[in-house]
Amino acid sequence: MTSMRQPYLSKTRRVVLKLGSAVLTAPDGLNRPLIERLVAESGSLRGGEREFIIVSSGAIAAGCRKLGLSSRPSGIPQQQAVAAAGQSALMQVYEEAFAQIGLKVAQILLTHDDLESRQRFLNARNTILTLLQWRVVPIINENDSVATHELKFGDNDNLAALICNLVGADLLILLTDTDGLFDQDPREHRDAKLVPLVESFDAKLEKAASSRAGALGQGGMGSKLQAAKKAAAAGLPTIIANGLTPGILTKIFAGEEVGTLFLPQAQKLKSRQYWLAYNVNPKGAILVDQGAWEALAKRQKSLLPAGIVAVFGGFGKGAAVQLMDPEGRPFAIGLTNYSARDIGRIQGRQTKDIEQFLGQKGYDEVIHRDNLVIFPEI
Question: Is the dihedral of CA 206, 210, 213, 217 positive or negative?
Fold first, then answer.
């Protein structure tokens, strides 16, 4: 397995390292010794041009300990308050740990809205790249104190995958409290076996990944699998490993067979395609017929009104909408040239008839192929 991993690791320059709550916390609060160890390991691996960007959970967990709560609150206002109490404690630990190896850190708090807006997406990227140029370690977390349900990433595994595309990373590492992906949930099956290598994603694999999170965390192995799929679509490998194992980062970069390695997709999405596929929340949906599905999914054509069966939602011109095949399954996302109301008036009709039904024709295509992304089959 070393020979399988080494080609990816040898060319790794920019690493997104996600640390989960199960790794960062101890019964009496943040696990300072473990954080200091991981920071020291990352420092020893920064030789040459290698850079680390840390996506850190722990604010809510730290706040729960600080406020004497035994578990994560279920309500968003309560989670926001707990995160506000814990974020400063979390950053102080990072400040002190990185200071021991002569590095400074910078805090970046994001909501989904920050990465959905193309301009804010670019602003965030420029900020992070400038920090890296200055040899400052970015510590990124979801802005739990202000994020509403609609603005949340879901969990930091998902955020870490999106950050990979944002900064052009070469490797995603997800550290948790288990040794990697198992063929069964090891907490329930003693005969569960570690899966050392994943070359492709299938239903059996997703079933093996438990979605049950810990008491203080939000993402289980299921969310890590989804993050690995998104990283694969961006063309980079993912390693899920046990952050509680001493020397885990050193072992990973030595090419040792630790954790689970997920191989990247051969044909990766370009950065803007990835942004559209995974950063943008669709405002509606369009159901297409068989002919349109084949033209879009197999021949990379644009969506014309003739192939539209139905439109859902009240979106306006320029909105991101999901495309569904004749069976109602989402297969693509795109930016529409027409509003939902206008699409409803021209659906099923020929392009030459658009002006007759709308009074004008701004575009032949409802969605141009340059503004359309077919979801990767991974």
Answer: negative
- Pick left, alpha or beta for residue 29 (phi over 0 → left; psi -120 to 50 → alpha; otherwise beta): left
pLDDT, residue 248, reads 95
User: Contact 294/343 with Cβ under 8 angstroms?
Assistant: no
Written as six digits, the tokens of 192 are 């569960």
Residue 211 pLDDT: 47
Same domain, 194 and 120: yes
pLDDT of residue 1: 42
Show Cβ contacts of residue 242 under 8 Å, excluding neighbours closer than 6 positions: 175, 176, 177, 178, 179, 180, 248, 258, 259
How many CA within 13 A on the CB side of residue 107? 14
Pairing of strands 29-30, 238-242: unpaired
Tens digits of residue pLDDT in 175-207: 998 888 887 777 777 788 888 888 877 666 666
Hey, what are 290's tokens? Answer: 């068989």
What is the tally of structural domains in the chain? 2
Q: Does residue 275 lie within any of the structural domains?
A: no
Domain end: 244, 270, 296, which one? Answer: 270
Distance CA 38, CA 247 (A): 8
CA distance 46 to 262: 23
**Which distant-in-sequence residues (6+ apart) come within 8 Å of 337 by Cβ?**
317, 318, 362, 363, 365, 366, 367, 368
Structure tokens at 131: 């920090």
